[in-house]
Design brief:
Strands 1, 2, 3, 4, 5, 6, 7, 8 and 9 form a 9-stranded parallel sheet that branches. A 3-stranded mixed sheet has the order 11-10-12, with helices on both faces. α4 packs across α6 and α6 crosses α7. The chain is built from 13 helices and 12 strands. This is Divergent polysaccharide deacetylase family protein. It comes from Providencia hangzhouensis. Keywords: Signal. It holds the Pfam family Polysacc_deac_2.
């Protein structure tokens, strides 16, 4: 347990806190089954343009809805009918595992034509289809030609969407919460609270609902009161960058003397060249302001580089700050430099609690 922080590390920590972006949890809400209920569809379109809509390709009003949504800058998905395990009425051109790759490709191309401006696709029902690896391989083979991503509604536990998508390089997302399995305003609000809690814990969440009157009423009230630490985003905003290779987060801290030394100029570009990795959103260059120091304090020209990889839990707030501080303190490359500076002040860097 850290009991005391000396002045210099405390300044560095303060600067680090100011430089780190405070990111809100991200919540994406997708409303399925668009294209049949004109009144409810229009009520959803009156909500924030961050709400994503998924249009059934064979619906009578699908193209009209797509035109309106596109004018709003709203994300549009193709709500592709897929065969379920249960016996129930099916939409026209429902994809099934028994179909050939050519037939699936024809149906998907027709759906893309019927739902203009679509950025991605998600499944309508589909427990039998999405649990079939060969069937979903045919779907992903077709999607790979159209630059569309796939949102897995996860209507069955052993979904093969992810496995098939990896084979063909199709970006994917997963549904985390259904908000209206039971059609009541109270139930939808309860499920939206669960989606917010999931987003806070994991950084983001995808919630799926339908244009039921009770869902519309719940969204009209709830979105106006969305917590300040949760950002409503279009579902495509949750897609990971295409380059999946992540470099360790690197911190390089320079003293003011290092920046002023004419023989060894330190520029932002020079720092990036030394790290030998392209700058990413995870890379932070911290350059503290000049501060008066006692003459007997030894200031190294570079405090060094502390590299660390964020844990899967993705700590936030004070937990993230403490994680960074501990990473700096435990880094073997930095320890000699930190000790050198603190010997000049004749006091330990960290005083352990007895």
């Amino acid at each position: 347990m850290l009991k005391h922080l000396p002045v210099r590390p405390l300044i560095v920590l303060s600067l680090l806190m100011m430089c780190l972006p405070v990111s809100a949890a991200k919540l994406a809400i997708v409303i399925d089954d668009f294209g049949y209920r004109v009144k409810e569809d229009n009520q959803i379109l009156a909500l924030s343009p961050a709400v994503t809509i998924a249009i059934l390709p064979s619906s009578p009003h699908g193209r009209e809805v797509a035109e309106k949504a596109n004018q709003q800058g709203r994300d549009i998905l193709i709500h592709m009918p897929m065969k379920p395990l249960s016996k129930q009425p099916l939409e026209k051109d429902t994809l099934a595992p028994s179909m050939s790759a050519e037939e699936i490709d024809r149906i998907i191309k027709n759906a893309i034509t019927r739902v203009p401006y679509a950025k991605g696709m998600n499944n309508h029902m589909g427990s039998e289809m999405t649990s079939s690896l060969p069937g979903m391989q045919n779907v992903m083979r077709s999607l790979s030609k159209s630059n569309l991503f796939f949102l897995d509604s996860v209507t069955i536990g052993n979904t093969q969407v992810g496995n098939a998508a990896k084979e063909y390089g199709v970006p994917t997302l997963r549904r985390h919460i259904f908000i209206d399995n039971h059609q009541s305003e109270e139930e939808t609000r309860t499920q939206l609270n669960k989606a917010v809690a999931y987003a806070r814990k994991h950084g983001s969440a995808v919630a799926i609902g339908h244009p039921h009157p009770s869902t519309v009423r719940a969204l009209q009230k709830y979105l106006a009161q969305l917590p300040a630490d949760v950002e409503l985003v279009a579902v495509s905003a949750l897609l990971s960058p295409q380059s999946s290779t992540k470099q360790p987060t690197s911190l390089r801290m320079l003293s003011e003397e290092a920046k002023k030394t004419p023989t060894q100029p330190q520029t932002k570009q020079a720092v990036q060249d030394e790290i030998k990795t392209p700058p990413t959103k995870d890379a932070t260059v911290v350059q503290p302001e000049a501060a008066s120091q006692p003459e007997n304090v030894i200031i190294p020209q570079e405090l060094g580089i502390c590299e660390f990889t964020l844990p899967p839990s993705k700590p936030q707030g004070i937990d993230f700050i403490m994680f960074v501080v501990e990473s700096i303190y435990n880094d073997k490359a930095l320890q000699p430099l930190l000790v050198q500076g603190d010997r000049a002040q004749k006091r330990p860097l960290f005083k352990q609690q007895q």
